[in-house]
Structure formats: structure tokens, C-alpha cells
């Protein structure tokens, strides 16, 4: 309404600027005007309209505000009132710019993307984080660099420039020579943050803080354009602001001040070849959409305008022949600093952000996957839900597999609807490819292999594999890779839990679907399969099986679950001699059980063992969480020996009060008097000691030998002594406890609940 009132005020001022005789002339010409639709002013009303205000009221009753504006402009031109018409047009243009920027803010400010599934929207400003990119020349091609393991987060960028952090302020910024790029291409796999960057550009431009050299930025979502058969450039522009008819002539007159953004160009599915003589130069000419867009890209239409295009690697070849650009930016994802920055932006609360980032950083697989912006969002969203439930993450039992499967479920939501059977068969083939690659230490796959396996499906392939141009040129076919090595390992593990699909997997490949071969190979000589096996255990849990069924539409094999549990239960029995106490001495056992996230599986697997003995291991937060989860369910655990193990500590300055709720009770069942207040500093033993204080623990011996424990550990140990009556022996050899640490232990020994007999 405000814009409408402003336009009417502008029209009124224009009419008031006419001399009396000119006003009468304009009024006399009104009955002769031809307008589409209904247009008639009763003669008696027109006769009574003896002033600009009354006349304008009569006109707006008969047709729309836009039509009135066109009528007045046309009549002023006809009456040779060009100065007045020009002023009116300038006012119209100024108002249109203001309305368009307001429309852009409403359209792009709130990002509901993946967060819509959790019932909340985020502002672009609150969650956007700068991306790491590398500039690559067209002549070097995206695929000419060897991949050393994963496409994301690599530092070996080959012939491209060194990775840089690309801020939105750097887009279309003049270089040292004062030259400004007219064409910019951002290339990245799904979930790498291309669309979020586009939204950030639109919002900052509308707010007047970015790309101020452009009067207009028109952003087109190529998924929406894909359904359009024919259009002109003028049609495309009009769709960007449907509320009002734009002054197109004025907009197009300043080509240098227009930026076109095409987001997700791969959705158009264009090939690389089109005859040059089909290109057009008139922005109002309606042609097949591909012809119109190629004309815009090749600068036969509006040659002085600027272009920003985002695409997946699959469309790179089609774009190379269209764009007058010497290089493109390949998005590598989040740097280490950007990952931490993203967590802080997402939570908006330093305490929660630090705890969440610490949680992610303590998990090697998860932290590495967070180089993918969409995966960082996944982790933050899940941890945000955990905060709402528990207010802390000390007992967050979400495994890597669960979080990775949630990421895949969100990735599949971006897929257009199709036959579910097509997706199922494709995933069977994809998982087979991943498993074959893991066995052969292979991360790059040739185009022939993709076609032979039936994976060359344009609507599905770009979601899961990155396409790259072969170093030998187009004639030799493209090469493909998974966006991240850990995702390839996840799909490889999925291969072993799926029911056989004879239509999807050949007999020669089906022979590999033997879980026992995978597990025994890992146990004996293929330790590089650790992450694949870890994912395998996570996938056989009932929760993951349900996720595979709902998200991927695939059936899982009950045999896989039986085989992994049978292997795990017999693994340590074969290590221990008959005369020895049965003990668990492999850390990965706890990883596997934690990924399954089932109390019953922990109890059935560890119930036959009484001891845990680990030696010379640096225990990450993930390790500690996995151990704590298993210790809580391990009723028969009588002895823990950690010899020469170290504990990865929290960042300096973190407070325990932000991580765990403190008990204010004392005596049996609570922290000893004088210790509660000292629990403010994080102790590296906190997860383990908290698990041991869990009701049902029957631990008798705790050996922490040559672990380099410090004073902060004594706070937790003293609390454990007061709350664990079955603990009879505590060994702390080669620890630097200091006088304060010793005093803390003495306080614990004086508690009524302490039954310790041996302290070394």
C-alpha cells in the first residue's frame, strides 16, 4: 500500500506540474486513449474533474495504477511534455527500485531449506559462512588434478591457484588493474553452499552493502526455469518481481548496472553444442529458453551486463563453450576456521557453539565431513535438538552413522520426484561401485565403468558423484568421484546390509557381498577398512535399518546384523587364552557398539568379559564417549586398565558447568563437600568417571598407569571414590597430581561411601 500511495503522489505531482491549458488538453485526449480491458470514464465525471486530484481519482477508478501511469506517460510524450515525462519516469524508476529491493529481502532473507524439516527457519545473515575456493583456468579443467582421497577439503589443488576464503565482498570487485569480471562461475557438489551464497549476495545487495555498482540483480532458480519452454530475457526479468510491471526500457538501457544470477545451472540439462546462427540479440524476442539463455551467456543479448552462475560439475562442459571467462571458482567447502565460525553463527550462543564444535572436532569422521556445508548444518541441527532435550552434550549418544544418514535423507529431498524403484536400483549399483572402490583403494571412476554399471542417470548421478573432465580430454570420457571419501565408505558399508537386487548387481559383483570376508579382512590385514566397518555396525541397528528403508527405499538383510554381532562376540574370545581373564583390548570394539547404539547389543557382546585393557592410545572425545556408553551397560566389568593412554582435553577456558549439570548434594550419591565448586574446570576423565558413577557399576579395579593425569582429574576421581563403594583398587602411576590433587583425593577417601583398599 505504501508503494501504491507513493506512485499516486508522483502522478499527482506530474499532473499538477502542467499549465492550465496543458491540463485541459490532456483531459480532452483521455476519451481517445485505447487500453486493454475496461476503460471508460463517464462524461459527467470527466467534466467535473476540474483539477489534477479529481482527475486522478476518476482515472484510478477505471483502471489499474500501472495502466494510469502508462496513459499519463504516453499523453505527456504526445503533448511534447518530455521533461515532465522524464521526471515522472525517473520517479517511477526510483520507486520500482525501492519496491524491488524490498521484494528481494522478503524473498531471500529467510532460509527454510533443510531447516524446514525441523520446523524452523534461519536468516541468511545468521547462518552464512564464507567458503573456501580455488580459482581454476578453463584450460586446466576441473578433473585434471589427481584426487588423493576425497574431493572435499583437499589442499593439493594441482595447477589451480592456492585455496582462498571467498567472501561475498570479493565478488565482482575490481582487480589490481581496475578490471572487473563480467562473468563469474561457481562450481561445487550438492550441499557445498552455492545457493546459500547466492541468497547472501541477494540480501546484501538489497540492503545496499554489496555490489553497489548494480542497480538490479535478477536471480533465477534453474530448477524453476527447467519447465519453461519459451521466453525472452524481458520475460525472465519480469518473473523476478511479479508484483508490479517494471519500466523495462529504462532497466535495459543501463546494461552495465544489471547482474543476472543463474543458480543450479545443471538443472537445465543443456548440451554443449548449439548453432551460433540461432542466437538472438533482442531482449524482447521470445525464443526457446535454451536459445535465450545461451544468447545471454554468449553476450549477444545485453553484452555489457554481468553474470554469476552456480552449477554442479556435471554442467561444466556445457558452459565452457558459452562463457567468455578464463577461469572459474571451484568450491572446496569450509576451512577449519570456517567450520568453527559456522557453529558459532548457527547457535548464536558461545557456550553452546563451543560445546557443539568440541563434540564435532572430537569425532574424526564427523569433523572431516563438516567440510561440506550441508553436513555442518546437519550436525548443528541434530546437536541443537540434543540441547533442547538435555541442555548439554555430555551424554549425546548420536553416532556418526546416524548423522550421516540424516544428511543423506536431506540430500535426497532436493531430488525431483520420480519412480522409487529407479532410486532403489540406482543406490544398489552406487553402493556396489563404492564397495568395489574401497576394496581396490580406488576413488576415481572412469565414465565407461559408470555406464557399464547403469549409473549414467542424469537426475540421480549428480546427487552422489562429482563429474570431472578427464586429463586426456573430452574424447576419453569423464571421471567421477564421491564428494568425500567417508561418504564412499558409508555407501560401501551400505552395500553389505542391503538385500540382494539381481537387477542392480551382476553375479560377479554379488560374490563380494560377504560380510564375513569384509570383517575378517579388516581384522587380519586391512586396517584401512576401519571406517567402513564402523559404518557397517551403525547400519545394522534397527534405527538405521528403518532410515535406510524410509529414506533410500531399500530393504536391509537381517543376515548382516547376525553376522556382525557373531563376529564381534567371538573376536576377543579368540584373542584371550583359556587360562586368562576374558578382556576386551581393542578400542574399535567400543566404536562398533557405540555406532549400533543398542544397550542390548552391548550387554550381549560384553557380558562374557570382565576386563577392559587399552594401551598407548590417544583417546579423542569420540573414543571417550564410545567407552562411556559401553561402560554404562557393562554390568560385569570388574577391571579397567588404561596404560600409557592420554585424553584429548577441551579447549582452554571451557567450563564444566556449561557441559554437565553439577550436583549440589554431598555424601553418598553426591560429590564430596568442597569438591562441587571445583567441578568448574573440565576434566579429561569426566566422561569415563560419569559412566562409572552410573547405578549398576561393579568396578573393583581402576588402573590409570602412565596416563599423565593432572590436578583436574583428581576432582572427578575424588567424586568417584565417594560414590562407588565397590571400587577397591586405584592405580595412578606416573601422574603429576601436585599437592592440590593429593588433597582432593584425600577428601574423596574420607567420604562415607569410599571403600578403597589400595591406592598406588
Automatic annotation (TrEMBL):
Annotated compartments: Endoplasmic reticulum; Golgi apparatus; Inflammasome; Secreted
Q: Which domain of life is it from?
A: Eukaryota
Where's the Pyrin domain? 1-94
Recall the GO molecular function terms of this protein's record.
ATP binding
One Pfam family from the record? WHD_NOD2
> Domain NACHT spans what residues?
182-380
Q: Which GO terms describe its biological process?
A: inflammatory response; innate immune response
Indicate the secretion signal residues: none
Keywords assigned by UniProt, alphabetized: ATP-binding, Cytoplasm, Endoplasmic reticulum, Golgi apparatus, Hydrolase, Inflammasome, Inflammatory response, Nucleotide-binding, Phosphoprotein, Repeat, Secreted, Transcription, Transcription regulation, Ubl conjugation
Q: Name one GO cellular component term.
A: nucleus
| Protein name, entry field | NLRP3 protein
What species does this protein belong to? Heliornis fulica (sungrebe)
Amino acid at each position: 500500500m505504501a508503494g501504491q500511495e507513493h506512485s499516486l503522489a508522483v502522478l499527482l505531482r506530474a499532473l499538477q506540474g502542467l499549465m492550465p491549458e496543458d491540463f485541459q488538453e490532456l483531459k480532452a485526449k483521455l476519451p481517445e486513449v485505447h487500453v486493454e480491458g475496461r476503460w471508460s470514464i463517464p462524461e459527467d465525471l470527466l467534466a467535473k474533474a476540474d483539477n489534477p486530484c479529481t482527475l486522478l481519482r476518476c482515472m484510478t477508478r477505471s483502471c489499474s495504477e500501472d495502466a494510469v501511469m502508462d496513459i499519463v506517460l504516453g499523453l505527456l510524450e504526445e503533448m511534447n511534455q518530455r521533461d515532465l515525462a522524464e521526471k515522472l519516469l525517473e520517479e517511477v524508476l526510483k520507486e520500482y527500485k525501492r519496491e524491488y529491493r524490498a521484494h528481494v529481502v522478503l524473498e531471500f532473507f529467510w532460509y527454510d531449506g533443510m531447516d524446514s524439516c525441523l520446523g524452523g527457519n534461519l536468516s541468511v545473515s545468521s547462518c552464512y559462512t564464507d567458503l573456501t575456493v580455488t580459482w581454476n583456468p578453463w584450460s586446466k579443467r576441473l578433473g585434471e588434478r589427481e584426487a588423493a582421497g576425497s574431493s572435499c577439503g583437499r589442499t593439493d589443488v594441482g595447477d589451480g591457484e592456492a585455496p582462498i576464503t571467498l567472501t561475498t565482498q570479493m565478488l565482482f570487485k575490481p582487480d589490481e588493474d581496475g578490471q572487473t569480471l563480467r562473468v563469474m562461475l561457481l562450481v561445487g557438489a550438492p550441499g557445498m553452499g552455492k545457493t546459500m551464497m547466492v541468497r547472501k549476495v541477494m540480501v546484501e545487495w538489497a540492503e545496499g552493502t554489496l555490489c553497489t555498482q548494480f542497480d538490479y540483480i535478477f536471480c533465477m532458480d534453474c530448477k524453476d526455469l527447467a519447465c519453461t519452454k519459451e521466453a525472452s530475457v524481458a520475460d525472465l526479468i519480469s518473473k523476478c518481481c511479479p508484483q508490479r510491471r517494471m519500466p523495462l526500457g529504462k532497466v535495459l538501457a543501463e546494461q552495465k548496472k544489471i547482474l543476472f544470477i543463474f543458480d543450479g545451472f545443471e538443472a537445465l540439462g543443456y548440451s554443449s553444442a548449439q548453432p551460433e546462427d540461432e542466437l538472438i540479440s533482442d531482449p524482447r524476442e521470445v525464443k526457446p529458453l535454451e536459445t535465450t539463455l545461451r544468447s545471454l551467456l554468449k553476450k549477444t543479448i545485453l553484452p555489457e551486463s554481468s553474470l554469476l552462475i552456480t552449477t554442479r560439475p556435471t554442467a561444466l562442459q556445457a558452459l565452457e563453450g558459452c562463457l567468455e571467462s578464463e577461469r572459474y571458482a571451484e568450491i572446496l567447502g569450509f576451512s577449519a576456521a570456517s567450520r568453527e565460525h559456522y557453529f558459532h553463527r548457527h547457535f548464536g550462543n558461545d557456550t553452546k557453539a563451543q560445546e557443539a564444535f568440541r563434540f564435532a572436532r572430537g569425532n574424526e569422521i564427523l569433523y572431516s565431513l563438516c567440510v561440506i556445508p550441508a553436513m555442518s548444518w546437519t550436525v548443528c541441527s541434530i546437536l541443537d535438538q540434543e540441547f533442547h532435550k538435555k541442555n548439554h552434550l555430555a551424554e549425546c549418544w548420536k553416532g556418526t552413522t546416524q548423522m550421516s544418514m540424516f544428511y543423506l535423507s536431506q540430500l535426497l529431498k532436493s531430488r525431483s520426484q520420480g519412480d522409487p524403484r529407479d532410486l532403489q536400483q540406482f543406490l544398489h549399483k552406487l553402493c556396489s561401485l563404492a564397495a568395489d572402490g574401497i576394496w581396490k583403494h580406488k576413488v576415481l571412476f572412469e565414465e565407461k565403468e559408470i555406464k557399464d554399471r547403469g549409473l549414467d542417470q542424469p537426475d540421480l548421478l549428480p546427487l552422489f558423484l562429482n563429474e570431472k573432465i578427464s586429463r586426456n580430454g573430452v574424447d576419453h570420457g569423464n571421471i567421477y568421484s564421491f564428494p568425500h571419501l567417508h561418504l564412499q565408505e558409508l555407501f560401501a558399508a551400505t552395500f553389505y546390509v542391503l538385500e540382494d537386487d539381481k537387477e542392480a548387481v551382476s553375479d560377479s559383483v554379488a560374490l563380494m557381498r560377504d560380510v564375513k570376508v569384509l570383517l575378517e579382512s579388516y581384522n587380519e590385514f586391512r586396517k584401512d577398512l576401519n571406517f567402513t566397518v564402523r559404518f557397517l555396525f551403525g547400519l545394522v541397528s534397527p534405527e538405521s535399518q528403518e532410515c535406510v528403508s524410509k529414506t533410500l527405499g531399500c530393504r536391509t538383510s537381517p543376515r548382516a546384523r547376525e553376522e556382525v554381532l557373531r563376529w564381534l562376540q567371538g573376536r576377543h574370545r579368540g584373542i584371550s587364552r583359556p587360562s586368562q581373564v576374558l578382556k576386551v583390548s581393542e578400542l574399535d570394539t567400543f566404536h562398533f557398539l557405540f555406532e549400533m547404539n543398542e544397550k542390548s547389543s552391548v550387554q550381549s557382546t560384553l557380558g562374557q568379559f570382565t576386563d577392559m585393557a587399552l594401551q598407548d592410545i590417544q583417546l579423542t572425545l569420540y573414543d571417550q564417549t564410545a567407552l562411556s556408553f559401553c561402560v554404562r551397560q557393562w554390568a560385569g566389568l570388574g577391571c579397567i586398565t588404561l596404560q600409557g593412554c592420554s585424553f584429548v582435553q577441551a579447549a582452554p577456558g571451557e567450563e564444566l558447568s556449561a557441559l554437565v549439570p553439577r550436583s549440589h548434594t554431598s555424601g553418598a550419591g553426591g560429590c564430596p563437600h568442597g569438591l562441587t565448586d571445583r567441578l568448574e574446570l573440565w576434566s579429561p576423565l569426566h566422561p569415563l568417571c560419569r559412566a562409572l558413577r552410573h547405578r549398576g557399576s561393579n568396578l573393583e579395579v581402576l588402573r590409570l598407569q602412565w596416563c599423565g593425569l593432572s590436578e583436574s582429574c583428581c576432582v572427578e576421581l575424588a567424586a568417584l571414590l565417594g560414590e562407588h563403594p565397590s571400587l577397591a583398587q586405584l592405580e595412578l602411576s606416573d601422574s603429576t597430581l601436585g599437592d592440590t590433587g593429593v588433597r582432593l583425593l584425600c577428601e574423596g577417601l574420607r567420604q562415607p561411601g569410599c571403600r578403597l583398599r589400595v591406592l598406588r
